[in-house]
User: Fold these one by one.
Assistant:
Number 1:
Amino acid sequence: MAIKLYACVTAQCDECHNTLTNDDEVLLHFDNQTEAINEAKGMGWQQTADGQLLCEDCADPLPECPTCGPDCTNRTHDRVFRTRGY
């Protein structure tokens, strides 16, 4: 039996660290970063202006932050935990 090592790229959400899988929950592997990002976007993921890759759940806009107001960019405020059940 031959054992071979292959290098590949997978897509992972920068927020919750979920990985991109198909409908059967099988981890998807790609030859390069561009392919992974394009496939993720095609499956509803979003890439932010600063390059972060976010799954569908994390890309959903959050309600207004009660501490900072509508312009809050601190995703660690308790609003994240309340709205996502963390």
Number 2:
Amino acid sequence: MRVRGVATQLTDDAAIIAASLDDPDRFAQVYEKHAGKLYGYAYRRVGREIAEDVVADAFVAAFRARHTYDPGYPNAFPWLLAIVHRELARHHRTENARYRALDIPVGTVRSRLNRARRRMRDALDADPARSSSAGNGIEDRRWSLGLAGGVLAALLVVVTVGALVRGGWPAGGSAPPPVTAEAADILRTAALVAHEADRPVPRAGQFVFTETVASPINQVQQPDGGFGTVQGPRVLRQTWLSADGTRDGLVRDRPYRQDGAGSDDLVLPACPAVSSADAAPGRSCTPQAGFDAGMPDNPAAVLDWLRTGVSSAAGPPVGSAAAPVGGVADALVFQRAGELLVGGRYLTPGQRSALFAALASLPGVTVRQQVRDLANRDGVGVGMADGTTLIFDATSYAFLGTTNSALLRQATVDEAGDVPL
């Protein structure tokens, strides 16, 4: 998709990148929009000086690979973040190779480099000529949006003459799955990606539509007369939850990937066990809303909120004075988070981001590489031992679902039964 002769300010990253194929200066808009957050992400991992180089290299690579960008994704942040991940991995490989060549422990070399950098900064700060010479000091290399255009212009010059440089840039913009990624790092990255999502908040009276691939758990009688559970065949599940809890919802199941197959519909009363159609005046009712605006959107508060809503085996809410925190309690918190993410309820970008960040603080969370969700999508799993596993795309860090339910899409609609295009 190419956009020719565009003169207006575009806001859709896909349209901007397409326009930049004919007008390279357009790519500056992508840089100005995302460079600050990407630098902050890299800074927290490798420090200021290296983060600057990593992000600069990542944008040069993105610019050269912009023809590979999928126009179906209006937000380029996950794509750019994957490239930053690749550049960070490349930096670590190069750095470790140099340390091995020096035959000095990695920690020793890093400590010496950090001390040298501090001395260099102190010397530059003390130099009176520095204050009158723009652009010469480290502190002048800022990643604020106001200065992004000038830095990008330099990058574009590098790319323009790049044909004279051999050694090669990557042809595509996606990074390989991290082979040694820590669970907390994956969750924090997913939080960063989730925060950038463009998700309209449902209005009162609307429904939250969620489409998943699920595998129901069926109870079967054993030969000895007892009962056990068995995982049933996969179904395509469509759920409509009333955003404010004032209207009956709907669950519709049909066999997965069987066009024309019949469906089973189940009405979800606005008040559990009390249909809104025959609710008597004065009868107590606690609506089950599909959107909880009161859910916090900062990690610490979300963790407390999750613990309050989970009951331990002994009865008291997890995290209360009567219930311990950690171990089984944290596994229950992780399980509840998974249910929120795939159970049909709407989370704002801030709430979803805070949820992932909160889970990153739990001890005992581990990584499962090369997992596959129920929709047969490959990803990387993060979860508790013998408990819920969350699955993320290994390059974009988009949330795919859990091992029990694959999240295909979510949207807001006006009526139960409406299916978005």
